[in-house]
Known about the structure:
The chain is of the alpha/beta class. The protein has a single domain, classed as DsrEFH-like (Hypothetical Protein Ychn, Chain: A, 3-Layer(aba) Sandwich). Helices cover about 30% and strands about 25% of the residues. It has a 5-stranded parallel beta sheet with strand order 4-3-2-1-5. It is globular and about 30 Å long. The chain starts with a strand and ends with a strand.
Amino acid sequence: MALHTVNLLPGARAAETVLAQLREGDAVLFHGDGAWHVAAPGLTAWAESGATLHVLAADLAACGLTERCDSRVAVADAAGFLALTEQHTAQRAWF
């Protein structure tokens, strides 16, 4: 089980690489530019990967997406981010 922190805009070529590496039990935390994924049409591919999806609350608000966040994505504060790092021994940063 790995935690993938994603700071990539929707449509970035590297996003396809991340998707190919996701496994059941993994978690994805969208942050920075990655927060835009929560309202993008391509979110379905992420949701069907078997990984749980999360977004940092501060980045969600900074992008003005609080009201547009897809229900398949859990909103995490700093404590939630810390909990994800504790639950997943392997971590991969994508940017």
